[in-house]
Specification:
The complex is a heterodimer of chains A (about 300) and B (about 270). Chain A contains 13 helices and 2 strands; from the N terminus they run H-H-E-E-H-H-H-H-H-H-H-H-H-H-H. The radius of gyration of chain A is 24 Å and the shape is globular. In chain A, strands 1-2 form a two-stranded antiparallel sheet. Chain A has about 300 residues and is mainly α. Chain A has one domain: MetI-like (MetI-like fold). Chain B has a domain of about 170 residues: Orthogonal Bundle (MetI-like fold). Chain B has about 270 residues and is an all-alpha fold. The radius of gyration of chain B is 23 Å and the shape is globular. Chain B has 13 helices and no strands. The chains are: A mainly alpha (about 300), B mainly alpha (about 270). At the A-B interface, helix 2, helix 4, helix 5, helix 6 and helix 8 of A face helix 1, helix 3, helix 4, helix 5 and helix 6 of B.
Chain lengths: ~300, ~270
Amino acid sequence: MRFFGRLSDATVGLLFVAPAFLALLAIFGYALGYSAYMSFHFFDLARPHAFRFVGLENYIKILGDAEFQRALKNTVVYTVVAVSAEFALGLILALALANITRGRSWMRILLILPMMLAPIAMGLMWKFMYNNELGVINYVIRSLGIGSPPLWLTDPKLALPSIIFVDIWATTPWFILLLLAGLLSIPTTYYEVAAIDGAGALSAFRHITLPLLRPVILVALLIRGMDAFRVFDLVYVMTKGGPALRSDVLSYYNYRQAFIHRDIGDASATSWIMTLILLAAGLFLLRIMRREEGSVM
Amino acid sequence: MKKNARRWRFLSYTIIIAALFVFLFPIVWLILGSLKPPADLLVVSLPNPPTLVNYFTVFERFPVDRYLRNSLIVAFGSTAITIVVVSLAAYGFVRHRFQARGALLISTLLMRMLPAIAVGIPIFLLFSKLHLTNAYLGLILAHVALQLPLVIWILLGFFEDIPAELIDAGLVDGCNRLTVLQRVVLPLAAPGLAVAAVFAFLISWNDFSLAFLLVSTPSRLTMPVGMSQMNLQYGVRWDNLSAAAVMYILPTIMLALFLQRYIVRGLTMGAVKG
């Protein structure tokens, strides 16, 4: 143990963090490097000897693929609709929770429950409720006198919205908690001063709440947006992208390329297209967190 | 003015109670469904009388005990490795300033954002060569990588709260850096370690994507993947499936209640303190 004594402070620090970073590098570094390399090659697992360098061919092929375009469109719709609905509902509920005093803490506890569940559990739970014969949703609709209620997960028009609805159910609580934390950190004196100056509730919201909440809102939207963009579990367990790939998303498309079509070159190119989009969003998030340091971090 | 505030408060309670109903109903409905005798499953009703029969038959019909055991082995194994590795890393970050510090911390944030499938494909191909697919060790290592970024940030927050004087005093008293970590830092950070461990456990317990890609042997499936197969192979046995799902989510619910004070911090990688 003498050994540590002779090393510089910085070296000792690096030694302590080394195991964690070697592990991360071994998994993520390897994965990213491998798929970057493969994305420029033709590599079909069924025909490994046909392996060859193809430049940007995989990327060009994928970007022109109608299935990719639909998966991308669905993913963007999923992300935009789910995250904006979650944000709007989350904000309303956070404002309501900030407005009450009694019972706030146990209501917060109860709201935590849905969002902590595994997506697979949520998916199964809702698949059961959406079921036409056994499900409680269509039971209620029928008892209201509607003869043929919608087939939530098998109707091509409804499959994707039905999955988005589950995402909204699962994740609105996440926005509530986050925005509530932000709301409660705003000093009440601000509002008292505004009230003395004769500002109404609406103008206090516009001129105090929203500007002070802005960094929290941006961080929340970006983190959740990135999560929604890579959705896989919910789609897989509820529809497998069906019917007829009408609820397909990028992660599931990427999975099929590698494990059904066994085309690693194409799959790697898709992986990198997704990764680049997420990295761009991630770097943007970091910029916000840095700029707003103090109010966010 | 006073009347106005009362009206706002009333509206707030109404909204919150309606929301609680919407958010909790599916979970309650699942639990109620699992307590219904299988014959009643075709009718939408409350369990009357409630029975545990689905919980017994699910073990007879499906290898749920194996699924649960596999999930526990992988979750405990990966959490143990992660906590050791992350304790060292968090200590290194808090106590030492080095050039790559900021870059390393930021890289963990970015790794957390990668799509699981995109990472899972190369890992699957690599692990196939190393005979690490369908093996506990392979999935444990993959889950360690999944846990590390988030857990580093959580533990960092707790380590930063430990007064530097205490660590310095330990070093003056003749401890070396490892014994200071062991005798001073870790005991003081015990609550933080517990929170970090629970988050790590949940990440592994809830993971579907990587477990799905890396394990396909029926006897090695973890609970979420096993449940998704129960759905495929035998036609849907909703009575058994709901019993399995309840057993699967119960630990999550209990741990979530334990975590509630730290959840906002954890889910945003410490970006927002709750």
